[in-house]
Hints:
The structure holds two protein chains of two kinds. Chain A is an alpha+beta fold. Chain A folds into two domains: 7-36, no CATH class; 43-146, Immunoglobulin-like, CATH 2.60.40. Chain A has three helices and nine strands. Chain A has helices at 7-22, 26-34, 52-60, and strands at residues 44-51, 71-75, 80-86, 89-95, 100-106, 111-116, 121-124, 132-138, 143-146. In chain A, a hairpin with a 4-residue loop joins strand 2 (71-75) and strand 3 (80-86). By secondary structure, chain B is mostly helical. Chain B has two domains: 1-131, Orthogonal Bundle (Rna Polymerase Sigma Factor, Chain: A), CATH 1.10.1740; 132-189. In chain B, 69% of the residues lie in helices and 0% in strands. Chain B contains ten helices and no strands. Chain B has helices spanning 5-15, 19-39, 44-61, 71-93, 102-105, 109-131, 134-144, 151-158, 162-177, 180-183. At the A-B interface, helix 1, helix 2 and helix 3 of A face helix 2, helix 3, helix 4, helix 6 and helix 7 of B.
Amino acid sequence: MRNDWDDDRLLGALSQALKARQAVPSWFIETGKNAFAWHNIDAELAQLTYDSNEDQREAAVVRSETASIRALTFTSAHLTLELEVTGNSLLGQLLPAREGQLEIHTGAGDITTTEVDEIGCFSVDPIPESPFRLRCHTADGTDVLTGWITI
Amino acid sequence: MRDDPHVVALVTRASGGDQDAWYELVDRYAPLVYTICTRYRLSNHDIEDVGQNVWLLLVEQLGKLREPAALPGWLATTTARECLRVVTAASKAERLGTGLDDSVLFVDDTAIDEEILVAERNAALRAAFAELPPRCQQLLSMLISDPPHSYAEIHAKLGIPVGSIGPQRARCLERMRRSSALAALGEGEEKIDIRGGEPGA
Lengths: 151, 201
């Protein structure tokens, strides 16, 4: 308990506490509240198992110039998603190859859908500017959700 | 830091799907996440990006948080990691090398630890303030407003006789001091001094 604080000190501390809360923009709070839409999503989570940026980050310590293609891999028990940035679009493939539907979810809650063809290929165009995640429903009933992606 | 029973309850409720509990958690800890972002001098766009990731990660972790007392620490380190990711990506885009410039080095672990303590204390103070009767809240708000209101203005607005303002201020603060929200603050926090805590600031 703050028995050791005199009135002026407590009032000063309260003033700072209220100011710290007021300094937070309302859009920042909204972003946090909206995140709850992702609670208890009933899909298998695919973890990021490869990111070319991580390789580059280490390489950047010795070489500041790196020019390779951004590539990401997400893996779950039943499905692997391989992604590659090509120009303004994101090309991907499901492994093992299978047909299905791909949803692109943005943090703001927008969802767009694209088809996954019979050899498991798809493209996301344009690439969302804000963080997004991919959810994949395949013809055989697999439902996989990637972690958040920022390109 | 001890387990604040209120925070434990919020985490349990939110992980059970209670949206209001989640909103309260966001409200309580948004200043911590936001302050760390500003320490990394991120643009608003990047702050939104980081904030989004941090809250989304927390949503996924809710059911796995064994000790809700660890929540502020988890939020702070996750936010710092996300900020670093954004700063590194930006500097890489500009071909500035490793991205480890002064603004990044400035945010060391000690600074983050202090942000956690300050954020916990501030959250407890706001919670204690919220538990006060409306009259106390009005009076204290007027006393700490910037610029501060004079006793004459407080008398005009709240109808409290000028001679009673001092004693009422003392009573309201004593109530705050005794609130359960402030009691939850741990003893490890005692030695942390209030930054810029000059009387009546």
